[in-house]
Every structure is written in structure tokens, then in C-alpha cells.
Specification:
Elements (H helix, E strand, L loop, with lengths): L3 H21 L1 H22 L5 H4 L3 H17 L1 H13 L1 H6 L5 H30 L7 H29 L2 H17 L12 H9 L1 H13 L12 H4 L1 H28 L2
Helix pairs in contact: 1-2, 1-7, 2-4, 2-7, 4-7, 4-8, 4-9, 4-11, 5-7, 5-8, 5-9, 7-8, 8-9, 8-11, 8-13, 11-13
Length: 269
């Protein structure tokens, strides 16, 4: 019977395998980091001229970066589904099945390695943000907590994408399916504009959208807020850290067992 220690050891091995793949195929890392740089530059200089401090309460570049962070780590989590579908398609999962390893280890290793990918993206985006004028105005501990919250939320979303990758099993379809869902989820939020500028139904959705709470939490932890422009009087944005963690916990409680069960079904065929 597989013990917890064996599962963790197997997961570490799979994580190492996935990270070695990035080192051997550097194109993956290059294009993963180019996209956030492009978003930072485009939004900072294209939207920055149209949206000023009077709309957000702070310099738009400081308002923007937390939203770019949230959008990028959520999109980065789709790599989990894409990679699992690719491994299924190329037969790597069949090789794992022949080994005496825990079924959960493949998924744990995959999601853990994608946390590393997202961490690298955050570092690149942070440096890009500093270049365009973003600054962290809180203390170092709060700033670290802001980055950790983004990674925790992205890790939870990775498990949703893992289930999608196991169900669809075609990398191209995983990308298309994820884009259809995640694109509106990250734009109908407070990522790039204040929710008050949205029409009624979309505004309500943005208030309760977990991407909005993650973004708001990151802004507060980075010190990129103005007390004269408080968040809307809705619970998720008044308590963004708690709401974001509750969402992450709920997603993990639901999708970790679903993904492991689907993996066992897929590999037993």
C-alpha cells in the first residue's frame, strides 16, 4: 500500500522531471515569460493614457500590475491541463502506470512544477513592472504574502485544469477550452478597470469574481491602494484575502479528489 511518504517522494521525482523538461526545452520558458512582459508594456502604455488616477485613485501603473499578476498566474495554470493532455497523447502516462508509484504523484508533481513556472513569471513581471513605474509601497513581509497568495490561488486553479486535461486529452482543445472560460473571468473583474465602470450584471459578477478578490488582496498587500478610494461595500472586496483563500480551499477540496479519480480511470483503460 502506498504511504504518504512514498507519494511525496514520487511527487518530488515527477516535479523534477517536469522542471528538467523546461531546462531541455527552453522555448517553453521563453514564451511563458514573454507574454507577461508584453501585457505589462501594452496595458501600461496603451490603457495608461486613457485611464488616469482620477478613475483608480492611484497611478494606473500601480493599479495595473496586481491585475496583470492575477491574470498571468491564472492563465499560467492552464499549462497543467495542456501538459497532462500532452503526456497522455505521447504515452508518458502509460509509462508511469507501469511503475510502482502513487496515482496522485503524477498530478502533485505536475501542479507543483507549474507553481515554479508561475513563480518565474511573477519575478519577470515584477521586474517589468519596476521598469514601467510600479512600486511596492508596503513592508517586505506583506509583499511576500501578496506573491504567495497569487501562487496559492494559481495552484488551486491548476487542479481544475488538471481535470480538464484528463477529460479532454488533446492539448489544443485544452488550450481553447481554458481560453473561453478564463479570458472573460480575468477581464470581467477589477484587474484592469474599476468594477464601478461596468454595467449592472457585469459589475455584480466582478464584485464576487474570485479573480477580483485576489487582485484586490495583492494591491492591498503591495500597498497599491488609496484610502480615499476604498473598495466597494461588498464582502469579497472588503475581505479579499479571506475570500481568496476560501475559494482556493474550496477548489482544492473538490478538484483534487476528482482529478485523482479521473486519473485512475484514464490510466485503467
Amino acid at each position: 500500500m502506498t504511504t504518504l511518504s512514498h507519494t511525496v517522494a514520487d511527487a518530488v521525482t515527477v516535479t523534477r522531471r517536469n522542471l528538467i523538461k523546461i531546462r531541455r526545452v527552453p522555448d517553453l520558458l521563453v514564451f511563458t515569460t514573454l507574454q507577461p512582459i508584453m501585457f505589462v508594456l501594452l496595458f501600461a502604455y496603451v490603457f495608461g493614457g486613457a485611464i488616469g488616477e482620477q478613475d483608480t485613485g492611484i497611478d494606473y501603473k500601480e493599479f495595473l500590475i496586481a491585475g496583470i499578476f492575477a491574470q498571468t498566474v491564472v492563465f499560467g495554470s492552464t499549462f497543467t491541463g495542456y501538459s497532462l493532455a500532452e503526456d497522455l497523447q505521447k504515452g508518458f502516462v502509460d509509462r508511469f502506470r507501469t511503475l510502482p508509484m502513487s496515482p496522485a504523484a503524477v498530478l502533485l508533481g505536475r501542479t507543483a512544477s507549474d507553481v515554479v513556472n508561475n513563480a518565474i513569471s511573477l519575478v519577470v513581471m515584477g521586474l517589468s513592472g519596476l521598469v514601467v513605474g510600479w512600486r511596492i509601497r508596503s513592508n517586505p513581509l506583506d509583499a511576500v504574502l501578496g506573491f504567495l497568495l497569487l501562487l496559492v490561488f494559481a495552484y488551486a486553479v491548476s487542479w481544475i485544469m488538471a481535470l480538464v486535461g484528463l477529460l479532454v486529452r488533446t492539448p489544443e482543445v485544452v488550450n481553447n477550452a481554458a481560453f473561453i472560460v478564463i479570458f472573460p473571468l480575468t477581464f470581467i473583474a477589477n484587474t484592469f478597470v474599476s468594477p464601478e465602470t461596468l454595467p449592472g450584471p457585469l459589475r455584480t459578477f466582478a464584485y464576487w469574481n474570485p479573480v477580483s478578490s485576489v487582485t484586490q488582496a495583492a494591491r492591498e498587500l503591495f500597498g497599491n491602494t488609496n484610502p480615499q478610494f476604498p473598495p466597494p461595500e461588498v464582502w469579497p472586496l472588503q475581505h479579499p484575502v479571506v475570500y481568496s483563500l476560501l475559494w482556493a480551499l474550496a477548489v482544492l477540496l473538490v478538484f483534487v479528489p476528482l482529478s485523482v479519480r479521473q486519473y485512475q480511470r484514464t490510466t485503467s483503460r
